Amino acid sequence: MVRKYLKLLVYAAFLASLAYYMITPISHSAIDKAFISAGLILLTDAVLSFVSAFIKQAVKDRRDQYELRSIASYALYLTALVAVLFVWIEDPQTFVLGFGIMGAGFVIVFQDALLSIAAFAYIILVKPFSVGDRVEIGNNRGDVIDIDVFSTKLMEIGEWVKADQVTGRLVIIPNNVVFKSPITNYTKDFNFIWDEVYVPVTYGSDWKKATKILLDAAKNASEKMSRLAAHEIKELSSKYFLKEKDLDPHVYAELTDNWIGLSLRYVVPAAERRQVHNRVSTEVLERIGKARRIRIASESMSVELTKGSR
Q1: Measured distance CA(80)–CA(134) in Å, rounded
Q2: 133, 248, 290, 297: which is deepest, by most CB within 10 A?
């Protein structure tokens, strides 16, 4: 609200100054150019406000709204900057020559900043990630919350917090990093990942019943998610060369020296891994606790004492 009133105050001050200037008999070229420049900037701001309101009403998806507003903002302000430059420049040819000479030195001195601008264009056009995606860039993981000309901002996940939940820290990554580090996108074109729950049971346990408990728990927690994942992976297969994937929950058994390891594998939305993992684990614990012939194994030593014969 304060910003809105401040903007109206700036417009009113400009109009008042313009009215005073027009009735003043004194004319100065620099003042003319200053008023034209200010008028162009304010006109650009007014057009951007109108375009933003139109985008908000016409586009329902928040991610698309953000991207369209960003593109419109940069395009309009870049156009205004070029227009203002031509207002102040009397000899365009001299300006182009001087700009070319200065530009060479500018590229050398500010190469990282210019590389970030080029990376911004790459991000907007190629879309290796977008606002709302969960990504890993270099050693940084998080949800993309903002992309500007020079940097990308992530709401960090991981670190000391387990299972890909947010830490509360904001990570600011220069855009040029996308040209130097691999980008892992958790949600581009496919919003699901595979998760696993590992349960060790003793060799005397009914491992077949334990397997059924694991599968039932996964189906109860992720049946609807599996249908959505199947729809998305079908679309993904039409876009990329991707072999058919089995999205149903599966349990894989492993024999060790101490126990039978049962690994439950199932699909889950990338942003909900810990919540679903908790639901599956809770149901498994409750049902195994009621089962008579299933015991969860642990790394412990059993010592049996037998009475020796005399």
Answers
A1: 34
A2: 133
Residues 6+ apart with CB under 8 A from 229: 190, 191, 192, 247, 267
Instruction: Write out pLDDT tens, residues 35-85.
Output: 677 777 777 888 888 888 888 887 777 767 777 777 778 788 778 777 777
Please determine, looking at this structure, whether the domain spanning 125-185 carries the CATH number 2.30.30.60. Answer: yes
CATH of 192-290, one of 3.30.70.100, 3.90.1150.10, 3.20.20.210, 3.40.50.1820: 3.30.70.100
CB of 280 within 8 A of CB of 217?
A: yes
> Is pLDDT above 70 for 261?
yes
Helices marked H in 189-206: none
State pTM to two decimals: 0.66
Question: In this predicted structure, what is the pLDDT of residue 19?
Answer: 62
What's the mean per-residue pLDDT of the chain? 81
How many angstroms separate the CA atoms of 238 and 209, rounded?
39
CA-based radius of gyration for the chain:
31
Tokens of 188: 């581009």
Pairing of strands 260-269, 192-201: antiparallel
Contacts of 248 (CB under 8 A, 6+ apart): 226
User: Mean per-residue pLDDT for 259-281?
Assistant: 92
Q: How far apart are CA 270 and CA 168, in angstroms?
A: 18
